[in-house]
Amino acid sequence: MKxxxxxxxxxxxxxxxxxxxxxxxxxxAKPPVYMVYENELTNRDGYLKEYIPTAIAxxxxxxxxxxxxxxxxxxxxxxxxxxxxxxxxxxxxxxQLEGWLHSxxxxxxxxxxxxxxxxxxxxxxxxPQ
Length: 129
Fold this sequence. Notes:
Layout (H helix, E strand, L loop, with lengths): L1 H28 L3 E9 L2 H18 L3 E5 L14 E8 L2 H8 L2 H10 L3 E2 L2 E5 L4
Antiparallel strand pairs: 1-3, 1-4, 1-5, 2-3
Helix pairs in contact: 2-4
């Protein structure tokens, strides 16, 4: 009888581990979300000194990463107004991105940034890799 209980217990533990592994793999399969930003700067120095350092810290604190930033090259269409700030951020999910956008710390620094720039931010879902 004791052997039967041991086998049953081991079987249940194996099923639990397997279920946890499947859930972890499912979580990894969710595609990321990208935020593309194009900010028309009205005061470049203020934007770079008072907004950018704190904004970057809030992005990282909410699990976001900066994939690209800098001066873009226009291949078609109208070139952007200068000066401007461009970049691509990535978050693991839309919920994570929205958590950052609606966080108190980002709202506070965004109000500072709006003194120096006009914002255009676009979220784009990624594809599973």
